[in-house]
Amino acid sequence: MSETIKAQIRAAANRVLNPLGLHLSRRDRAFEMDGLLARVAARQLAVATWIDVGASDGSWSLKAQRYFPAAKFLLFEPLAEREAALSRLHTSRGFHHVAAAAGAKAGSVAFSVDPQLDGSGVAASGEKNARTVPVETIDHAVGQLGLPGPYALKLDTHGYEIPVLEGAAKTLSQASLLVIEAYNFVLTPGSLRFHELCAWLEARGFRCCDVADPMRRPSDGAFWQIDLAFAPSSSPLFQSDGFGK
Questions:
Q1: Which side of the chain, N or C, has fewer Cβ within a 10 Å radius?
Q2: Confidence band of 3 (pLDDT split at 50, 70, 90)
Q3: Which residues span the domain enclosing 89?
Q4: How many domains are contained in the chain?
Q5: pLDDT at residue 22, rounded to an integer
Q6: Does residue 72 sit within a domain?
């Protein structure tokens, strides 16, 4: 179907919907994760290994693999409920799975388990529905497996970003991209809001270069979270402060 015909259908639908206070508009995929990954791939950014922290069932890594088919993948996910899905990816896709949370040092941590699983994360003190899970550092896992750089890191860690990054100092020195789910609220004691995370990373040589998947809080519509992409401050992206064309 041509874009002209689609536009005519939208216009006709809106003539019906407008009196009801509704409006049909074209979905802007530029602010979806696929759009971000497509832009990164179009820049021919070098990524030999993707490190997916908070990998869930591996669906995010599968999406990234479409844009980086030659890259290796290392997935951190401590939930036993995800073991079967990630084991299948190890067999069929060659993904490496670390059955632990990523952190600043090896050990263990209390991990809050959300009934839907995807909302799980390192627990605040005294939080219910918590279990103890092992912790491994990114640097150790990457070294143990001999995974090559340059690296790209994706974090979906619900306020636990700084300990994860502190355990990845060597890996970050060879990182070409970070994709981090950031928040406008303090999820756990000591966690950083999105602007604080930007400042923390800029002090360590990374600048925000793209965004995806903004989310509002359903209770009041307030800005809740967004995925931020960071590139090294030395990237050609930052050579000019001009808008350009």
A1: C
A2: very low
A3: 43-233
A4: 1
A5: 59
A6: yes
